[in-house]
Write a structure and sequence with these properties.
- With 225 residues, this protein is an all-alpha fold.
- The chain folds into two domains: 37 residues; 177 residues, no CATH class.
- It is 78% helix and 0% strand.
- It is built from seven helices and no strands.
- Helix 3 packs antiparallel against helix 4, helix 4 packs antiparallel against helix 5 and helix 6 packs antiparallel against helix 7.
- The radius of gyration is 25 Å and the shape is globular.
- The protein starts with a helix and ends with a helix.
- 11% of the residues are buried.
- Pfam families: PEX11.
- InterPro entries: PEX11.
- It is found in: Peroxisome membrane.
- This is Peroxisomal biogenesis factor 11.
- Keywords: Membrane, Peroxisome, Peroxisome biogenesis.
Length: 225
């Protein structure tokens, strides 16, 4: 986005020069202006630094997920011991465990190959990144189904349990909306990363990623306070 702003600024400067010399050139004369982008300009430098920061954050988040199989194992173990009473929610949960196992396996392989730990060529790395994102997208889609089922179950429970504490209901609704917003932000991103040529621009990637990141960071901060 900053690159485009820098380009527009240069274009505006060129048009200004053209307007100033308009009518002052003799017949047959041509003005050639070569305007090069200054690599040290503020916009170009800021854009470069933001991209570097974005890449660093993404790399760190993926690195922390390298150990995600342990969390998935814990999730599956808890699901086996205490499955949801609703049959549909139980099947959704097991499907989520399954797609997350495949997603984590593919992402770990692509990430380790990117850093030279596994000997994948660039084409295979890209294929693994794309397919890992597709399984992540499947998880997001299943999570929308889970949220819809939980919303229906919550409405039914609220009608049948009028004595339920108001604070508990509010907390449950806040958690539901928080997860819905995160999934809504991740949905277009997972679609984008599932396509080799992408689907959205850098501005939307940063915007949607920031929404999900801020919501998750706030919840993490709240849980530790």
């Amino acid at each position: 986005m900053l690159d485009r702003l820098s380009h527009r600024r240069l274009e505006k400067a060129a048009l200004s020069v053209a307007a100033q010399v308009d009518g002052k050139l003799l017949p047959g004369e041509t003005l050639i202006a070569a305007i090069s982008r200054d690599p040290k300009s503020r916009l170009a430098l800021t854009s470069k630094r933001l991209r570097a920061l974005s890449d660093l954050i993404a790399d760190f988040r993926i690195f922390t997920r390298v150990w995600g199989m342990l969390g998935i194992w814990k999730w599956g173990s808890g699901l086996w011991k205490e499955p949801p009473q609703d049959k549909a929610l139980k099947w959704i949960a097991w499907m989520q465990v399954g797609v997350n196992v495949v997603y984590q396996y593919l992402e770990n392989g692509a990430y380790l190959a990117q850093h030279g730990i596994i000997g994948f060529d660039e084409r295979k790395q890209t294929r693994w990144w794309v397919w890992s994102s597709r399984f992540w997208m499947a998880h997001v889609a299943l999570d929308f189904g889970r949220l819809w089922m939980e919303k229906r179950a919550g409405q039914a429970a609220q009608e049948g349990e009028e004595k339920e504490g108001k604070i508990q209901r509010v907390r449950r609704e806040e958690k539901w909306w928080r997860e819905a917003y995160v999934n809504a932000a991740y949905a277009p991103l997972t679609l984008h990363w599932s396509l080799e040529n992408g689907a959205v621009g850098e501005m939307w990637i940063g915007f949607l990623g920031s929404i999900a990141g801020i919501i998750e960071l706030r919840e993490m901060w709240r849980s530790t306070s």
